[in-house]
Structures are given as C-alpha cells and as structure tokens.
Specification:
The complex is a heterodimer of chains A (about 375) and B (about 300). Chain A has a domain of about 220 residues. Chain A is about 70% helix and about 0% strand. Chain A has 15 helices and no strands. In chain A, α6 packs antiparallel against α11. Chain A starts with a helix and ends in a 16-residue tail after the last helix. Chain B has a single domain, classed as ABC transporter involved in vitamin B12 uptake, BtuC. Chain B has a two-stranded antiparallel ribbon with strand order 1-2. The longest helix of chain B has about 30 residues. Chain B is globular. Classes of the chains: A mainly alpha (about 375), B mainly alpha (about 300). Chains A and B meet through α1, α6, α7, α12 and α15 of A and α4, α10 and α12 of B.
Chain lengths: ~375, ~300
C-alpha cells in the first residue's frame, strides 16, 4: 500500500531458495541480527564521543547504565515496568504493518484505554478484584480498539491514509482524555493534578506472585507471542502478509482486504488500550496526565526496530526500557540531566533505522542457488 | 466591553499569537512534502529551535540572532533527516519520529541551564495605537515574526509557481521517474527541501520561546510540529492556504484561554481538537478509494 512498507516487506518476503542453500535461513538470521548490533555499536561510539566532548567518562556512563537498568532486582523491575507498555504499543504498530499500514496513533489509544479502564472500575467498587480487573482490561482494550478501528474504517472505506488519520485521531483522543479527566470525570479531591477517581488499592494489579515481576510484562509477552503465532502460523496471518506484500495479488485472490485491515487495526488498538489499562491498574491507580508519557511514540520506533516481528519486539522493548530506567541513577551519580537517556535513545533509534539500508547490500547474506 | 467583544478581541489576539508557530512549521512541512518526503521530525526541530533561540538570545542579548540560530539548528536537524532518508529502504515516517525524540532529547539536555534565566524577547509592533481600549491595544501587539511568516508564505507560493528551482522541487515531489528522466538530483533536492523546511520550523520554535509564551521550558510545544502534517493536508499543500490553516487552528487553540477571561473554564480541550476533527471530516468527504487528494504530491508516502 505504501512504498515504504513495500521495501520493508521485501526483505522478509520468502525467497525461492535452491535445495543446495540450506544455510540461507541461518545467514538471513545473522543479517537480521548483525545490522542492528552494528547500529547499536555505532550509536554507542557516537554517544561516547558526545560524552567525551562534555568531559564525562563513557566507561562510567555505560557501567552506571548497566547498573541502573539490570544491575539489581530493583532496577530490573524498573526496566521491565517501563518495557511492558512498550511491548503493547509496539504491537499496535506491528500488527497493521503486516498489511503495509503505518499506524502511528498508539498514544491516543493508550490514554483512552487507561481512561476507560479507570471508569470501568468505579461502578464495580467492592466487587471481587479479579472481576474488576477483567472488566477494566476489557474496557481498556475496547476503547483502544475503537480508536484505532476508526483509523481502519477510514482507511478501508474511504481510502484515507492511515498515517495521517491515526496521527490526527491520536491528538483528538488526547484532547478528549484531557477534557474528560479535567471535567466530567474528575475527582474533585485531585487539586494539583486533575485525575479520575482512584480505582482502589484492592483492585490494583500486584506484582506477579513468586517473582515480583511487573504484571504488565506477562500480558505484553503473551500478547507478543500470540501476535507472532497469528502472523506466522495461521492462514489469517498469511492472508495479512500477502496483502502487505502485494495488494493487487491479494485482491485477485479474493482475500477480504478491508476486513483484514479492520482486524489488524482493532487488534493493534486493543493492545495499545490494554497498555493504558495496565498503566492505570498497576502503576498510577487512576487516570491522569501521567498516562501521556510518550509510550505510543516509543512503541512506533520499537516496532520498526524489530522490523515488525512481534518476537523481536520483546528484546527491543527491554533494551529501551532499561535505558529509560537508568536515567535516575545517571542523574544522581554523574550529574547528567535526565534528558541524557532520551538523547541516547534518539541516537540508537536514528542509527538502527538508518541501518535498515544495509539489508540486501551484501551478497554473502543472500540466497544462493536461486536463479 | 461586553462579553462577546472580550472574547472576540481575545480570540484575535490569541489567533495572531498561536498561529505564528503553526504558520512557520506548516510552511516548512509544506516545502518538505512538496519535494516528496514527510518530516514528522519537525516537532523535535520546533523544540530544538525554541531552546537554541532562547539560549542564543540570552548569551548575545539579541533575540534576532537567536531566531537566526534557531533556523540554523533546525536546518541541521532537518538535514540529518533528509540525508538518512536518502538511503535506500529507510522509512521517512519512522525516521521522523526518531528525529523528533532525538531533537527534543538534545533540546532538554542542553536546555536545562536556560529554564531559570530570562532572555531578551523579540519586540512587538504596537498596531493597536489607534485604540483607547487596553485589551485591543495588547491584542494588536503583533510580533514581526507573524508578518515574516506571511511574507514567507507568499514567497514560497511564488517560488513554487514561478521559479526554475521551485519547478524542480515540484517535479521531484510529483514523479521521481520524471525527475530521473530530466537528470535531476532527487536526493539532493529533497535533502535541501527538508533542511530549508526544518529551518522554517526552527524559526517557529524561536517564536515559542522568544515571543509567545516567551520562555523556555520542557512543556513548551503542545505538538504543533507533529500537527503541521494535518495543517498541510488541510491547506492542500498550498503555501497560501497554510496561512488560513494556521489562523483557523490557532484561533481554535486560542478559544479556550479567551473563554477563561470571561469565566468559562471547561471544555476548551474540545475546541483545540475541533479543527482536527474538521480536517478528518473534510478528508472523509473528499477522498475516495483509489483517488488521491487534489494537490497532493505524487511521491508522498502518506498519499498511498
């Protein structure tokens, strides 16, 4: 559908390989692993030069970053807590991307999902907590699905570009969120920071029993695995990939393209909405401006870094969550501003996205025996 | 003055102020998109421009040097986007978001020391000298950057219509094949268009920190850089219509604060969002599947 996604699909498109080339899948995996690692190294070197120019030690920086991200149980927990919403907002991009769509409205779906979840908890106050949590999850996923679903509807019915539609709808969604949180749904007791009513301590999602891990992580990983199964192991997912690879061929085959577009958008939106629900139920306890934290935009980049492979989203989200989690420690120990981690993330995003150009450039990685 | 008069004056004042950054960013985005690329990184450019403009004004004492520095910083960041997107298979939408995060990150990193000190502001033109009403006088204190933006819009319109280089930009944006057949350097033209467009967006950022709201802090931009994409769609890629779009979107943003002046403090977020909803409705009415929007450059990735 878009030229950009044509090129991004063609790398993953199945290539007819000769029987002699048994090692091609291995080389392809090496290529897929090699270029992001190269880009990571390059961005680490560039960032080290940046630090040296400021008179700070890169060695200190990276060892502190390791400590702040993965060094202790506490920092690991912080990392995973940040990674959890990223897993789900990245799926909001990766699922429609299978059809060649670039949906960038995850931020709006996330905040509305969080709002719907916090509202769903109110009438059920005092009920059995797992029931309340289930209702919250359904409400959050439904709100997100509706929001990205509008984008899918505009795309499939009216042919409106999904990138523009989702971007504008995201802005509208955040405005709607602000209006409702500061107006009709506001808890009058929240003076400084307008919020909805608290969902109540009993209804909060606690850490996973036995491990102390963030509950959203489990949801996110399960969602990524399910998305991977859907995309690569079902006929539905195959139909989605065919549509993304060649729209004309899909139409000639009689694939229900419009319905596939709707399905991918609804599922993606549900993931983003669920991310909002988890932020409310496990972190904030109520919906307020803390939900508008840029997880939607970071999710877009993580999906692109993972080349829209749901399983590859997991390590990328943990990496970015870890860099974000180390910010506080770096600020305290090295006197660096808290935006330092954002600069490093920016370097990494730019480098890995640019490394996309390396795919297919080296003959050694290409299938042999074909042609 | 009665309530209606107060609102109207406050809205005109707000529209003139709020629309100026919208105007610069949408003109910059318009230039980039007419060359066939989309740059969502203008949000980062806007924030970086605001920081660089403020810091330069603080150190040199001259806000105009700040505006110039903001334009240069914006052009550099935009040039990075343009250069990387010239590589095969790099997605311009995703790269724009990466540039947005990198640009705001760099701006917050270096901007930390400038949150407290106050830098010299841009002067305003007192166009309300004829009136005795203080609200009208303050409403018509218009920044010269607003007129510079109007001038830039007319110049850009003339550039596309009547100059050789402008024609080349349009060719590159409408059909890469035609541009190749003519031997035009597609990547170079797109790089320059992105850099110049981001330079304009950088000036819009300088307006935010040096004129209105007139200070540097991390919550300065409310997404004007991202929403420039919607404005350019609204303006149908025409620089003159960018003026209308900026005034309409600016007025909607100004309605909330002007309602507050008469004590209505609820519902203004919905007014912010109204023009965007209108954009979507207009799109839904005018676009048909298989038929591109009138005025849209053919090479644009968001056109398909």
């Amino acid at each position: 559908m878009s030229a950009a996604s044509d090129t991004q699909r063609s790398a993953a498109a199945p290539v007819q390989t000769g029987a002699a080339d048994r090692l091609y899948p291995l080389r392809r995996a090496l290529e897929a692993l090699g270029s992001p690692v190269l880009a990571l190294l390059l961005s680490a070197i560039c960032f080290s030069i940046f630090l040296l120019a400021l008179g700070k030690s890169p060695a200190d920086f990276f060892s502190l970053m390791w400590k702040g991200a993965f060094g202790s149980a506490f920092s690991l927990g912080n990392t995973l807590q940040r990674a959890a919403p990223l897993l789900l907002t990245a799926l909001c991009v990766a699922l429609p991307a299978q059809l060649g769509l670039t949906v960038i409205g995850g931020e709006g779906a996330l905040v509305l999902g969080g709002l719907a979840a916090s509202v769903a908890a109110l009438p059920l106050d005092g009920a059995w907590p797992p029931l309340v949590q289930l209702a919250m999850a359904i409400a959050g996923a439904a709100a997100g699905a509706v929001w990205i679903g509008i984008t899918g509807l505009l795309r499939s019915r009216r042919g409106i570009n999904e990138t523009v539609a989702s971007l504008v709808l995201s802005y509208v969604g955040i405005a709607l969120f602000n209006h409702l949180v500061e107006g009709p749904l506001r808890d009058p007791a929240s003076l400084n920071k307008p919020s909805t009513y608290a969902i109540g301590d009993a209804n909060m999602l606690g850490p996973l029993p036995g491990t102390g891990l963030h509950p959203g992580l489990l949801v996110g990983v399960i969602a990524c695995v399910l998305a991977w199964i859907l995309i690569s192991r079902t006929s539905l997912g195959f139909a989605m990939r065919v549509t993304g690879g060649n729209l004309r061929a899909a139409q000639l085959q009689g694939l229900p393209v419009a319905r596939l577009v709707m399905l991918a958008c609804l599922l993606g939106g549900a993931c983003a909405g669920l991310a909002g629900m988890i932020e409310v139920a496990a972190v904030h306890g109520r919906a307020n401006a803390s939900l508008v934290a840029g997880y939607g935009y970071a999710g877009i980049l993580i999906a692109f870094l993972a080349r829209h492979n749901p399983l590859a989203i997991i390590p990328m989200a943990v990496l970015m969550g870890g860099i974000g989690a180390a910010g506080g420690l770096l600020q305290r120990r090295m006197g660096l501003p808290d935006a330092t981690v954002q600069v490093l993330q920016g370097f990494i995003f730019v480098a890995i996205l640019a490394s996309e150009t390396l795919y297919g450039r080296f003959a050694w990685f290409q299938p042999r025996g074909a042609r | 003055m009665d309530a209606a008069g107060t609102i109207i004056v406050a809205m005109i004042a707000g529209a003139l102020r709020v629309s100026t950054p919208f105007l610069f960013v949408s003109l910059g985005e318009c230039l980039t998109e007419r060359a066939g690329r989309i740059n969502l990184g203008n949000e980062g450019v806007l924030v970086l421009g605001a920081m660089v403009g403020y810091a330069t004004s603080y150190h040199t004492g001259s806000p105009w040097v700040g505006v110039l520095a903001a334009a240069v910083a914006g052009a550099l960041l935009g040039g990075l986007h343009g250069a990387i997107c010239a590589l095969a298979r790099v997605n311009d939408v995703a790269m724009g978001i990466a540039i947005m995060l990198a640009g705001t990150g760099i701006a917050f990193f270096f901007g930390k020391p400038y949150v407290q000190p106050s830098a010299p502001h841009l002067p305003t033109l007192p166009l309300g000298f004829w009136s005795d009403v203080p609200q009208v006088r303050s409403a018509l204190d218009v920044s010269p950057l607003f007129f510079l933006g109007l001038l830039a819009a007319f110049l850009l319109h003339w550039f596309f219509r009547a100059t050789r280089v402008g024609l080349r930009v349009r060719i590159v944006g409408d059909s890469a094949d035609a541009a190749r057949a003519l031997g035009l350097g597609i990547d170079r033209i797109r790089l320059l268009a992105t850099a110049c467009g981001s330079g304009l967006a950088g000036i819009g950022g300088a307006f935010l920190s040096l004129s209105y709201p007139g200070s540097w802090n991390e919550g300065l931009s409310s997404g004007q850089g991202l929403m420039a994409v919607a404005l350019v769609v609204f303006a149908r890629w025409n620089p003159l219509h960018c003026i209308t779009a900026a005034l309409i979107f600016g007025a909607a943003g100004a309605l909330g604060p002007s309602l507050q002046t008469i004590g209505v403090s609820k519902g203004y977020y919905l007014f912010y969002a109204a023009p965007y909803v209108v954009t979507l409705i207009v799109l839904a009415i005018t676009v048909r599947p298989g038929r591109a929007l009138r005025g849209m450059p053919g090479e644009l990735s968001i056109g398909r």
